[in-house]
Amino acid sequence: MHTSSILMAAAIYASTVTGLATPQLSKRFSVPGASSEDGFTIPKGVQPGVYEVFIDDAGVAHHTRLEDADEHRVNQVSANDDASSLERRQEGTGLRFITCGDSREMNRGYTDDAVRDLVNQCGNGRKVQSGHHIYSVRGNVAAFYCNYVTIANSTPPFGVYGTTQTCYGDRVWKIIVSDISGKCGSFKPGWSEDTYAKQKNSVGYHEVGSDKNFCGEGHL
Prior knowledge:
Elements: H1 3-18, E1 28-31, E2 40-42, E3 49-55, E4 61-65, H2 83-91, E5 95-100, H3 108-122, E6 126-128, E7 132-138, E8 141-147, E9 165-167, H4 169-184, E10 190-196, E11 199-207, E12 209-214
Antiparallel strand pairs: 1-4, 2-12, 3-4, 3-7, 5-10, 6-9, 7-8, 8-11, 10-11
């Protein structure tokens, strides 16, 4: 083996083991320059999958790839879903605002896959800790669920630890396919903001890259 090949192999191994900012090679990676106000970025070339993100006090976003969902959800809201339960999941968080990104259509295949991955991961209810976010990425498109509630902006009885919120797959599907697509256009970027008291969460999708921020309090 040539010396250059040995050095390259060693570099790849070291990056994978240490989990440095090499998202193409590791299931865990960190990206600096994040904040609760501005959110975080997803580098291009990230391995396809669903990730959980937490931003620490130093402004570093820590991304951890989650295990694939055990069972695939249906590709649309099922007619067998309990109507009252579904309504609670969709509308029970109070006011909903929809914001559109630019008007460029995203890659349809990547978008479909990213949305379905997020829907499958949330399934019948996935708990998302206070100040944590999850996203699914395919190609250059990511679909996301943000839990904006943190210790700093929550009120009693949640003011001590913040509050965990629940991501439901059918709710994610309805918001993206009906609410966002209905306002912004099919396969065009956009996101929701649901608020109730001081609780806030967001669902949406847009392209990834160093200039594309996700889950920031100032995302609007």
